[in-house]
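Teaching assistant's notes for section 4

Start the section by putting this record on the projector. Ask students to predict, before seeing the second block, whether CD80 protein will look compact or extended. Collect guesses on the board.
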Amino acid sequence: GLEKKTVNSKVGENIGLPCCHEIPSSESLQNYRVYWQKNITEVVLAYAYGKKISMHEQYKNRTEMNTSNLTLMISAVKILDNGSYQCVVQHRRSSQNPVVVCDQSITLFVTADFSKPNITAEVFAETCESTEMVVRCSSYGGYPKPKISGVLNNESVVWNTSWVSEASFSPYNVTGELRLNVTEEDNITCSIEYNGFTKSTSLLLSR
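Reveal the predicted structure now:
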């Protein structure tokens, strides 16, 4: 079918991407050409009539294909493996050109865990009634780009946020900053959300 298939994974896991065709036990890979390609342009792995004919550098030593159900196995997935994969299967008939048996896309979504948020507070200015503080929340090493949210004494606050990522498909570091007047004791919570996961840290600010 044309329904979009997605496989979710975390960095370092071993995964299998299912193909759209299984070779019946009465036949062998010898009658088929199988291409696993990524983002339509790169061939990850290709077999022609039972022989492996091509393999992409990036996947060397960590990718293999099951020769009966044609699943693409990738070990130790990386953020760079994110993308859309196509499995294309052709069957060789006795006389004609190979016939396309199936051609299907599957999306691989790889998540990397962020560190537990770290909250620091420094005093910026002090008066008799209140203390002005700069509060920072930071978390690093995760993917995809996170959302950062804050709660101050049960009220939500918006962090002044900056993200850093060295390249596309590389981990993000995120930092949020807040300037607060603390009068007695304030409880601040910082949460990082990414792909359905959340990590939070709380800190009691007192003057």
